[in-house]
Specification:
The complex is a heterotrimer of chains A (246), B (406) and C (407). Chain A is built from 6 helices and 13 strands. Chain A is mainly beta and 246 residues long. Chain A has one domain: outer membrane lipoprotein receptor (LolB), chain A, CATH 2.50.20.10. In chain A, strands 6-5-4-3-2-1-13-12-11-10-9-8-7 form a 13-stranded antiparallel beta sheet. Chain B has 406 residues and is an alpha+beta fold. In chain B, strand 6 and strand 7 form a beta hairpin. The longest helix of chain B has 41 residues. Chain B starts with a helix and ends with a helix. The chains are: A mainly beta (246), B alpha+beta (406), C alpha+beta (407). Chains in contact: A-B, A-C, B-C.
Chain lengths: 246, 406, 407
């Protein structure tokens, strides 16, 4: 579930009183709609025997469009990923090729991280593919948060049995996300931390994705800087752009 | 001539021991060959039938381009109607139209590539009999929505069980990604590793709906009433539908043909070896007999029986022995085959390996009626040939010498 | 003393003795031939299967076989390849770096299996040059690749076109490259022909960002009997905390099962042969007994104890059997050796089915010692068991009747 990578890039300052779970989730999600952003990020893949750091630039529009350009290390530099709704394209400058990812590649890990290619395309689904329920209140790193449970709707093409999202009450930021299979085994955990102001908004600058079965593995994403409402529209997110952007 | 025959006959019964041994050799020879042929036949049939019955069927239809490029857009035009008309052909036992695509099957823990079949259960079961191979759950009998049936091994790889949710992802005709969530309604264990490890069966309507197709028959598989009729039915079908790719199991699974060839070619060698062993046994026995009858033969020659007659006498003796041994051998063979045909030979000590390879663990030997005749004829001819050399030796005797033997 | 007598008895009636010896020797020869062909076919089966892909033995990083991912590749210890090749019976140690990639040409894409290999060594294993249907072989430092013809067909490619490969490399680095196709290969296994891309090892290592890494070293031998010795020799010098060695039995257990099944039917065939042979031998013994009834009667009436006579006859049979079995053994050796070097071709009607799968259409003969020794022993014991008949007869006969009957 990669909703967060794009989701948390914006903030609402609206205040709502009585809200039900779906509204909360919609708000969390809606922070993205109509909002565009551009950012610089670093992703670190941590394994027991090795680790790897990747730098990238990202642009997004709502939850349906995004573009990522890898800037470091050298071997990966220049490769691009373009998401348009449910489809994902990959640009390989060294061989001058764009390919559309087939199903077999969608389930593979993205750049060797603990995210899959599929995760990159699936974010907006948390609103539509799930039913939402508030399960309680709690505190996470000194912030008051709702504990919201997401249960997949019947027929929704998602593998999870349920998802728990802890949303901070003050600013509608996801703080913690837990992914369970249908037997209630925890499969993945995402921790969002380092919450501070960037680009005019308060967002978590760090995300850790930890697979439960391999707790020594993790993927960490840092936002180095970010700007919001940069005035781009759908046309920005095209294959030609992906090839030309620097 | 009649006298020769009478003498020969009496000789046969005079020396019961020897005669019984030769008859015994013939009976054993015939029985051994019948058993061997029946056994190997049973082996081959079991393997081939396993594959045909549960996996590839007798004949398959595809759109001409489909095999090379299994794009979901390459449907058989009017597939369902075609399936109906085939079903009404009296030579065809059962027909199963299917949708098909390649895709990914994912669970929370793992993903695996595989073949996704959209089927109509009542049709499919009449052709592949998968309902009899369900190890857990049921064959689309429950009310589960979006049911899927997967091989047991695939379930293990994905770490899912009955009622678990899996997501099937594939591409529509424009190569856009489409996906659906399904529930494991049953687990399958067949003799085909391909099916067990990398296949998923869902309802045809679910597959076509997700793919956005109105009608989507990519494959029609059928079973013939009479397997032999393939040589006639296949050309007929090809003539009637020249635009489609119509293949028989031999073309779809050439490894079966290989298996048949391997087994067959070996069988001939084994038959040869046993025949040689038989002939030698008979030669040796008869030679010994000639040796034993030295005195008697010498006497016959001394009293005037000419060499030619002695020769013939021995040959006729052998003919009589064969005429007794032949039918007895066939009878014994018949009884054995009949009994084993019902009982079967239980090979379950080796059953795990057998099933992996497509044999059921009980083997039913099988033999055509004409084979009995061929085997008997072969053995009798062998026996006669075996008698020639000893008969020849017999007439080489020097009567005087023979008479003086102790 | 008894033996001298027995020995003389044997040679007293040469004809009878010769016939008996021939009967037994022939039994040994026939059953040895049958067993040799059966074992030969298994050896072929193993060799063919092993040479398709895995080789007889493989050395990997510990854990690679269970999880065959690129991240489990290893730096082979220094000199390992040379060390393995110096072992007795090893034809070659074939290095490999394999993984998956998306192959693309024009608008078409398909999953492919990329095998980074050393062309010269690989030829010992998969005999690639023989499988080239178009184009030519690549060299070790060639930037070009070989493709399975099925894959080329699907992508609408021909020799000279440029193949695009995209994948994830070692530790997730981006792997993307363009390679000119030097030639097309076709294997008996369609799965291979439809998926495989053979790339020279250095190019593959660069493509996957896996400098100096291998996923496996496959070992080929032309003496399958040596496999266990080779494996042990490799194990001796290997660091087993870092690497693993496995032979084909672990890598292809289905093959063992397949052979087991074949063996079952093989043993049944052998038993049937023994039945027929046994009957023949029995006939010989029966006749021999009948022929010597008079002689037995005489000896008994002259005062020889039955048990002594039995012992005498038994000694004769043992000697005969030994002679015969040794003769049979000696005769079968050259015959089987000849055929194991010069196998018989299959009749034409079966050839096509075999050749489709790249399997030599021959009747193979095995010249493993066990073929000869096991059959010799079986026939020897059969003879001993069948000797029960003459011994029984001796026990039962009345000397006078015997002398009369024998006349």
């Amino acid at each position: 579930m990669k909703c967060t990578l794009w989701l948390v890039l914006s903030l609402i300052t609206s205040i709502l009183s009585a809200q039900d779970a779906s509204e909360i989730i919609k708000k969390v999600d809606q922070k993205m709609r109509g909002n565009s952003s551009s950012s610089n990020m670093t992703m670190k893949i941590v394994r027991p025997d090795w680790s790897r750091e990747i730098s990238m630039k990202g642009w997004s529009l709502g939850t349906d469009f995004s573009l990522i350009l890898i800037t470091a290390p050298a071997r990966d530099q220049g490769t691009g990923f373009l998401k348009r709704d449910k489809e994902l394209w990959n640009w390989q400058p060294t061989i001058d090729r764009v390919i559309k990812l087939p199903p077999s590649m969608m389930t593979q890990s993205w750049m060797g991280s603990d995210f899959t290619n599929d995760d990159l395309v699936k974010e907006s689904s948390i609103v539509n593919d799930y039913d939402h329920f508030i399960r309680g209140d709690t505190t996470i790193t000194a912030r008051d948060a709702w504990k919201i449970e997401l249960i997949p709707k019947e027929g929704a093409p998602v593998v999870w049995g349920r998802i728990l999202i802890y949303v901070s009450k003050d600013d509608y930021i996801e703080l913690l996300i837990k992914y369970y299979d249908e037997d209630d085994f925890l499969i993945n955990t995402m921790i969002l931390s380092d919450i501070r102001e960037m680009g005019g908004r308060v967002i978590p600058a760090r995300m850790d994705m930890i697979p439960a079965e391999n707790p020594e593995h993790r993927t960490v994403i840092h936002y180095n800087d970010i700007r919001f409402d940069i005035g781009i529209n759908e046309d920005f997110f095209s294959i030609q752009k992906m090839k030309r952007i620097r | 001539m009649r006298m020769m025959a009478t003498i020969a006959w009496r000789n046969v019964w005079r020396s019961r021991g020897r005669s019984l041994v030769v008859i015994g050799s013939i009976v054993v020879g015939i029985w051994a060959l019948i058993f061997m042929l029946g056994f190997m036949n049973g082996f081959m049939i079991s393997y081939i039938n396993g594959a045909i019955r549960h996996e590839i069927s007798h004949i398959q239809f595809h759109e001409a381009n489909f095999k090379k490029d299994p794009n979901i857009g390459f449907v058989i035009p009017g597939g369902m109607d075609l399936a109906e008309s085939l079903a009404s052909d009296p030579r065809i036992l059962a027909v199963s139209p299917r949708s098909f695509t390649n895709g990914m099957i994912s669970s929370p823990r793992k993903s695996s590539g595989g073949r996704i079949y959209g089927i109509i259960p009542e049709r499919e079961r009449s052709v592949t009999h998968h309902d009899s191979l369900i190890t857990e759950g049921s064959y689309f009998a429950s009310d589960l929505k979006n049911p899927v049936i997967i091989g047991k091994e695939l379930a293990n790889t994905l770490k899912v069980k009955l009622n678990s949710k899996v997501v099937l992802t594939f591409q529509d005709r424009e190569n856009n990604l489409v996906a659906g969530a399904f529930r494991v309604a049953g687990m399958l264990e067949t003799t085909s590793p391909q099916i067990n490890k990398a296949s998923a069966y869902i309802l045809m309507e679910d597959l076509t709906r997700i793919a956005g197709l109105k009608e989507g028959v990519h494959e029609i598989a059928l079973l013939l009433e009479n397997p032999e009729s393939e040589t006639v039915v296949l050309p007929d079908l090809r003539a009637a539908h020249p635009e489609l790719l119509i293949e028989s199991w031999r073309e779809i699974a050439p490894e079966l043909e290989l298996f048949l060839s391997m087994t067959d070619s070996f069988l001939w060698v084994l038959i040869g070896i046993i025949m040689i062993a038989l002939i030698f046994g008979i030669i040796n026995t008869m030679l010994m007999a000639v040796l034993e009858r030295y005195r008697e033969l010498g006497m016959l020659m001394a009293i005037g029986m000419n060499k030619w007659r002695i020769f013939m006498m021995i040959v006729i003796e052998t003919i009589f022995l064969s005429l007794v041994g032949g039918p007895a051998g066939i009878l014994l063979g018949l009884i054995t085959m009949y009994w084993l045909g019902i009982q079967g030979i239980d090979l379950s000590a080796y059953s795990e390996g057998l099933r992996e390879f497509g044999y059921s663990s009980i083997l039913y030997p099988y033999i055509e009626n004409s084979t009995y005749v061929y085997v008997a004829a072969g053995v009798i001819i062998t026996a006669l040939l075996g008698a020639l050399y000893p008969a020849y030796k017999a007439v080489q005797l020097n009567p005087t010498e023979a008479l003086h033997t102790v | 003393m008894m033996f001298k007598l027995a020995w003389r008895n044997i040679w007293r009636n040469k004809r009878r003795t010769i016939i008996t010896i021939v009967s037994i020797a022939f039994a040994v020869i026939l059953s040895s031939i049958m067993r040799s062909m059966q074992l030969g076919s298994y050896e072929r089966m193993i060799d063919n299967s092993v040479r398709f892909y895995t080789g007889y033995i493989q050395v990997h990083k510990l854990g690679y076989w269970d999880e065959q991912v690129l991240d489990n590749a290893f730096h082979p210890p220094r000199g390992l390849q040379e060390q393995i090749e110096s072992l007795d019976g090893v034809e070659a140690a074939v290095p490999r770096l394999e993984s998956f990639a998306l192959a693309s040409y024009g608008t078409r894409t398909r999953g492919a299996m990329v095998i980074g290999m050393d062309p010269e060594k690989e030829s010992y294993l998969t005999e690639m040059e023989k499988k080239i249907t178009e184009g030519s072989m690549v060299g070790l430092n060639d930037p070009r690749v070989l493709m399975g013809s099925g894959l080329a067909d699907y992508l609408n490619m021909k020799v000279g076109d440029t193949l695009v490969l995209i994948s994830q490399g070692y530790h997730g680095v981006n792997a993307a490259g363009k390679y000119a196709v030097a030639g097309l290969v076709e294997f008996g296994l369609p799965q291979l022909t439809n998926q495989v891309v053979f790339m020279p090892l250095p190019a593959a290592q660069y493509f996957y960002g896996a400098d100096g890494l291998l996923t496996a070293i496959a070992v080929v031998t032309d003496q399958p009997g040596y496999v266990d010795d080779i494996r042990e020799a490799i194990l001796r010098d290997l660091d087993t905390t870092a690497s693993e060695v496995m032979d084909w039995r672990t890598m292809m257990p289905e093959l063992i099962q397949g052979i087991e099944i074949d063996n079952i039917s093989g043993i049944i065939m052998l038993l049937l042969l023994y039945l027929v042979i046994g009957f023949g031998m029995f006939g010989t013994f029966l006749m021999m007994t009948k022929e010597r009834l008079y002689e037995f009667g005489v000896m008994l009436s002259v005062g020889m104890h039955r048990s002594r006579l039995q012992l005498l006859i038994f000694a004769e049979i043992v000697m005969l059997a030994t002679l015969a079995v040794l003769t049979g053994f000696a005769l079968s050796l050259p015959v089987i050796n000849y055929f194991s070097q010069n196998p018989i071709s299959l009749p034409d009607e079966y050839k096509t089915a075999f050749e489709k799968f790249d399997i030599e259409p021959i009747y193979a003969f095995s010249n493993e010692p066990i073929v000869f020794t096991s059959q010799a022993w079986v026939v020897f014991f059969m003879a001993l068991v069948l000797s029960a008949y003459p011994l029984y007869k001796i026990w039962k006969i009345d000397p006078v009747t015997a002398m009369r009957e024998g006349r």
